[in-house]
Amino acid sequence: HRGTAFKMKQFQVLWWSSVTVVGSFQPTGVVASRRVQVDSAAMSTLPAGEHPFTVGVLGDLHMDPRDMEDSFAAREDFKKMFAEDTTKSQFVVSLGDVGESKDCTETKQLFAGTSDCFALVRDYLDGFEKPFDLVGGNHDLEGIDEFLTDDDNLKAYLDAFGKETPQFCHQVAEKTLLVGLGSTVFRRSKYTSHEVYVDDDQVKWFEQCLKTHPAEDDWKIFVFSHAPIIGSGLRVLQECHVVNGCCWLNHGDHPQKFINLVRDNPQIKCWMSGHFHLSHDYADSITFPGGNNRGSCVFAQTGVMRTASSRDGRRQSRLIKGNEHGFEILTVNHKREGEVRLDATVSYTDVCDTETGVCSVLVFAHDHEDYDHDKWFRAYTPQPDDGCYIAEPSGTLNPTGSPYEDLSNPDTVCWWNLKDGACIGAHNGMLLEYDPSTLAPLGMVVSRDELAGRKVAVVDDGWGGDALVLYSEGDPEATVVQPNEDGTYWRRIVRNKLFRTREKRRAEAAENFLRSVNGADESPVIRSSYGPYTNTAGQAMGISTRAHPVTAKELAKAAK
Fold first, then answer.
1. Mean predicted confidence (pLDDT) in 177-196
2. pTM higher than 0.90, yes or no?
């Protein structure tokens, strides 16, 4: 439908903060916002209307049979709200990671992903006494000792919850769909098993769902996934999910496919996710259309209900209440006996021009006491006008005496583009890579210890590209930061959890054996050798397979 203007239900967004209009779509990577006066007659609450619906959204449950008090209390909060709500169409969505990833049963096995876990959670969700569905998270196929394959684990998961497929689609109101996409890979993960991965069959199904429920036919689609999509602009954790390569949906496999679908399909009105165990008490726990071309979609982070799972001490879930005029996104505060806070009111409007992509939104807000805290977990996201961009990187980027002299200083921030299009930046004492399309963080390129005291240079390689070089003045040794085989630079450091678990068990067996040989008082030092090896060698002879220390602790011990 590009190049034509058509009548459709778009929306205005009314959000609680200072008054801002987020303008029309901008070129990729550009954020536009400006202060304006807003007409006092603009709606700040959703008017009553036909086809009402209510959806309770549960973040990472991480249920632990040893500690159920918070989980039961949160369910009672929802049951009370549903009982007081006059809406007939009521639904519950769980965003995955349903079981605790610990040995909860004294079997030396993880509880998450097991048959016992699924049975416990099924009984818990049945207790809401409402229709429900769920999407798989990164821990939901973690039953590695009970099931040999992902397929076996997935089948047990689907059978336990009465699902035919990892994805779901439910119509909750006139022309209104709830759509879920679930993770299906754990043992088969090429790198970290905690990447939330939606397989190709689900992506094709999702594309077909969008095609058969188009915006011009007035469809509204609410999407649910465990992890957010790249380009959503939601708050992320740099030193956890970003550097470990498990931040975004399909983080390591062309994650931009999802934001492109959002941009091309204005019927996608809302996308809910969990994964980060962060509350809703941050300005960017909800993001709106406009910045970085987020289509016509409101993105919302969903917190956790268990104290043991919370990163910031909050215990929160989400609530969606909608009708023909739009929808509201609310916070359910389980630390305050289910107190409900209105976070955003989204009102559908009538016209969107797909040639220009103009879909302006109104953002109304006021300060709330819940935002008065100092736990501001966040990853830096470059912006074209942030004053930190190095426009023509050539030679040393951090010469002595320059503002960027010490790139290992956590307060030093800069970023640049290489000739191959890669976007590299310094933040929090590391070099990171950012997605060129959305400027969202992808992962770590150079760690703090390697960057400390080094100069960073961008050098023409003589073949139309750049070489990213680390060096120290007066030192003959330099490091070329080579791109990965797919052209990206961020390092896939964290490996598949199945293999890591088995390797740790072998190392533990070796440690016990060494004690049996050398005496119980022995303090064994166990190292592991690995393959494949990454280097420029053309043949194996002459390459050592010797195990080397790799962690900071191991390196310090070896230096002594």
1. 93
2. no
